[in-house]
């Protein structure tokens, strides 16, 4: 199964989104598809064997919309796309202006009739039906041309969208007026007033266009966060090639190039520091506010800002592979995904337009039957058609999700889908991994004792064997052993390792210089039948000091033991406290020993500890926490960094990976904390709460206009108060409903993480 994200063009409301979704789903080989109206994109799951991008795009074209692939342009739309979008915006602006000016004249012309007053300042000819006809025609058919085109497209597919409603509504008002203009005697002979309603057609078209104009501007702002991210990338890099420094456009930088970064400069792409020392402000990418120290061997991230030092680095990733580009892509995908809360809105939009048409026809028939007044019946029907626009409904969830995920990215929280954004505030139990999650994951060897005593040459020999094997492991503990060996100036390239094998959660082994070297937990060595009694005395002290103890055996005989310390992250204790304050049950889950785990848990105030848990058991552990009570399952989040956490991250309702951890953990998770600061979990939960509240407000705004508006438009209050809804007011209300939804979503941009609870 493959995934694909397409940017869509030409959708005007949520019914369009439904249509595109149906069109894509009807292509054989497409497994699933999500169309997001707010983000204007489609997320498609498909079978590469049976269908390709071209076929999907053809189906979209046939449905009357256009698309382009996000994957071709990981950093946004290209220049041609931008130009066509700009041209579209200019045309819309012109139409709003032309429609606006003409509408003002028509409004003035119809004032005497509407108010029944004699207004001498308004020239009489404006009142003339034929003048009004001439003024209205271009507004209806040129300014409102896109409504007709879209309505025609959907008619051909035997569907209806909000464009259909607008065309029917304004078209009815227009045709009725034309009829009265040409045959002025027809209604008068029947004893009815023969008013024209040209201004209704013109003003409603203009108002809807104005609404769309404002809406598209506001919608542009919902993705401001991502544009900000994309804008972070600098244009040039100072490359050193063949000893010569030169400025090179960013697109021409290649992997393995050497790049010089001067004080205060932006780092152009990702790489590894070769010479020089500096501090770097990574806040824009990781959300980490303190500058990070960089020295040779450290990784630097493109788009972050260098502090006071200067350094040279070797490029490791460019273009689409850079950290920044990956973030942008992930956020774009998340913005296009659907939150479960949206299903209700989707279901409603599906039958909305046909239902409205039925109500409109019923309104007409009832009014005409009861009053015999053709004019009144027409006007109420037009009002119903105009006010019942489902577009606010389609905007309610996606706009908030776009803003929410964008805000997350700005705070160093990568949310992979709307679903986890929605779920995060419901988390009841949070499970934290120890090494690399609560601790820095930069362990150092603090103790080393061998069976044969402290004879230096013997110690270094054993260290050499151990480090040579550990060099093949990705585990943080392995890195500690290697680093320790390097600090003792032990050569690591003297021997090759054969038959290397990693027992995840237990240790590693390999053959070095014809010796079988095994390094790992006491339990594992016991399983291998290796006696650890000779060095037992050290274990207790080290573990009480929160150190991890690992054992080294050569050819099945215990040879040494190491104590490895891994400091807690500075924010861990505060984060745990804040989570507990939010009412969450905090649990520690680790592969490490009981005493070590207990010591650390005590330091940061966690009471529930599960230690010596194997990787395969971690997922089962999460499952049992989820189903702890038989009646109701609990929402469990897992936070982890290592390969050993991946199954648990996938099992949890919300899997949260540490951005500095392994790629496998990040891939298995729903949310990534880029900086690894656990306090970001608290922020994520707050953000989730704020987003859901925002969506609920939006849905309220969207529904309330229709629930109140449709009955009034249908004239339900007429028998009681004599109130009818003027179609112009209906048009204004419908534009307002979309606007209130989008501006409410934009309010979410003011979200500030609360640092004290
Ligand atoms: N490469 C290795 N070298 C030495 N010991 C190892 C290695 N990998 C694992 N171990 C041993 O196995 C134990 C469990 O490892 P595991 O990766 O499951 O958990 P962890 O990383 O220690 O803790 P956490 O689950 O909190 O991240 C470690 O504490 C260590 O003793
Ligand atoms: Cu609409
Ligand atoms: Mg870990």
Essential attributes:
757 residues, Alpha-Beta Plaits, 28 helices, alpha+beta, Calcium-transporting ATPase, cytoplasmic transduction domain A, elongated, 7-stranded mixed β-sheet, binds copper (I) ion, binds magnesium ion, membrane, 26 strands
Multimeric state: single chain
Tally the beta strands. 26
The order of strands across the largest sheet is 14-26-25-24-15-22-23
By DSSP (H or I, 4+ residues per run), the number of helices equals 28
The end-to-end span amounts to 44 Å
Describe the structure.
The protein folds into five domains: 2-72, Alpha-Beta Plaits (2-Layer Sandwich); 82-226 and 332-399 and 694-750, no CATH class; 254-317, Calcium-transporting ATPase, cytoplasmic transduction domain A (Distorted Sandwich), CATH 2.70.150; 405-439 and 569-688, HAD superfamily/HAD-like (Rossmann fold, 3-Layer(aba) Sandwich), CATH 3.40.50; 441-567, Calcium-transporting ATPase, cytoplasmic domain N, CATH 3.40.1110. 51% of the residues lie in helices and 18% in strands. It is built from 28 helices and 26 strands. The strands form five sheets. A seven-stranded mixed β-sheet has the order 14-26-25-24-15-22-23, sandwiched between helices. A six-stranded antiparallel β-sheet has the order 6-5-7-13-8-11, with no helix packed on it. Strands 16-21-20-19-18-17 form a six-stranded antiparallel β-sheet. β5 and β6 (244-249) form a beta hairpin. α3 packs antiparallel against α4 (129-143), α8 (198-222) packs parallel to α28 (727-747) and α9 packs parallel to α14 (391-410). Mean pLDDT is 83; it is low at 72-76.
């Amino acid at each position: 199964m493959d995934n694909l994200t397409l940017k869509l063009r030409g959708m005007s409301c949520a019914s369009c989104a439904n249509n595109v979704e149906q069109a894509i789903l009807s292509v054989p080989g497409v497994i699933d598809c999500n169309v997001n109206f707010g983000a204007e994109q489609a997320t498609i799951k498909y079978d590469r064997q049976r269908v390709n991008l071209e076929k999907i795009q053809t189906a979209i074209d046939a449905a009357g919309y256009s698309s382009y692939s996000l994957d071709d342009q990981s950093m946004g739309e290209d220049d041609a796309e931008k130009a066509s979008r700009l041209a579209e915006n200019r045309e819309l602006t012109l139409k709003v202006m032309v429609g606006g000016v003409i509408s003002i004249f028509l409004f003035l012309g119809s004032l005497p009739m509407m108010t029944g007053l004699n207004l001498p300042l308004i020239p009489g000819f404006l009142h003339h039906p034929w003048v009004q006809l001439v003024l209205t025609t271009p507004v209806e058919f040129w300014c409102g041309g896109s409504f007709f085109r879209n309505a025609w497209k959907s008619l051909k597919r035997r569907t209806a969208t909000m464009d259909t409603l607008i065309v029917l509504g304004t078209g009815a008002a227009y045709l009725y007026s034309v009829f009265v203009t040409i045959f002025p005697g027809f209604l008068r002979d029947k004893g009815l007033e023969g008013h024209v309603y040209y201004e209704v057609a013109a003003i409603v078209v203009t108002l809807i266009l104005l609404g769309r104009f404002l809406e598209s501007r506001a919608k542009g702002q919902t993705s401001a966060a991502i544009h900000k991210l994309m804008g972070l990338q600098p244009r040039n890099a100072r490359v050193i090639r063949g000893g010569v420094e030169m400025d090179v456009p960013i697109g021409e930088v290649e992997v393995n190039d050497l790049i010089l970064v001067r004080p205060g400069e932006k780092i152009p792409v990702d790489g590894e520091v070769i010479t020089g020392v500096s501090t770097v402000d990574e806040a824009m990418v990781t959300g980490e506010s303190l500058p990070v120290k960089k020295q040779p061997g450290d990784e630097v991230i493109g788009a972050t800002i260098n502090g006071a030092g200067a350094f040279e680095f070797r490029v490791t990733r460019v273009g689409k592979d850079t950290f920044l580009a990956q973030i942008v892509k992930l956020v774009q995908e998340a913005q296009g995904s659907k939150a479960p809360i949206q299903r209700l809105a989707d279901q409603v939009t599906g039958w909305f337009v046909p239902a409205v048409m039925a109500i409109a026809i019923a309104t007409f028939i009832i009014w005409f039957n009861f009053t015999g007044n053709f004019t009144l019946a027409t006007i109420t029907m037009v009002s119903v058609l105009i006010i019942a626009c489902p577009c606010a409904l389609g905007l309610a969830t996606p706009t908030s999700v776009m803003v929410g995920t964008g805000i997350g990215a700005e705070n160093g929280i990568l949310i992979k889908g709307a679903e986890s954004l929605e779920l995060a505030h419901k988390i009841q139990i949070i499970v934290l991994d120890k090494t690399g999650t609560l601790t820095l994951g930069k362990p150092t060897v603090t103790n080393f004792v061998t069976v044969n005593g402290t004879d230096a040459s013997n110690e270094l020999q054993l260290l050499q064997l151990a480090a040579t094997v550990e060099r093949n492991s990705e585990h943080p503990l392995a890195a500690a052993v290697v680093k320790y060996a390097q600090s003792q100036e032990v050569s690591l390239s003297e021997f090759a390792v054969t038959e290397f094998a990693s027992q995840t959660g237990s240790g590693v082994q390999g053959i070095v210089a014809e010796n079988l070297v095994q390094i790992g937990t006491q339990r594992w060595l016991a399983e291998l039948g290796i006696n650890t009694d000779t060095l037992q005395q050290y274990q207790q002290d080290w573990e009480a000091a929160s150190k991890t103890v690992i054992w080294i055996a050569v050819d099945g005989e215990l040879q040494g033991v190491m104590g490895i310390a891994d400091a807690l992250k500075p924010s861990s204790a505060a984060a745990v406290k804040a989570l507990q304050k939010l009412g969450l049950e905090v649990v520690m889950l680790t592969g490490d020993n009981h005493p070590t785990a207990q010591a650390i848990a005590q330091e940061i105030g966690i009471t529930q500890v599960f230690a010596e848990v194997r990787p395969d058991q971690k997922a089962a552990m999460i499952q049992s926490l989820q189903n702890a009570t038989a009646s109701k399952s609990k929402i469990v989040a897992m936070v982890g960094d290592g390969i050993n956490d991946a199954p648990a991250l996938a099992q949890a309702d919300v899997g949260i990976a540490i951005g500095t951890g392994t790629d496998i953990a990040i891939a298995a998770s729903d949310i990534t904390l880029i900086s690894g600061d656990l306090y970001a979990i608290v922020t994520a939960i707050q953000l989730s709460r704020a987003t859901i509240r925002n969506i609920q407000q939006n849905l309220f705004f969207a529904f309330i206009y229709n629930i109140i508006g449709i009955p009034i438009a249908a004239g339900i209050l007429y028998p009681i108060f004599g109130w009818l809804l003027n179609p112009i007011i209906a048009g204004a209300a419908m534009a307002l409903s979309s606007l209130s939804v989008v501006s409410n979503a934009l309010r979410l941009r003011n979200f500030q993480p609360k640092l004290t609870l």
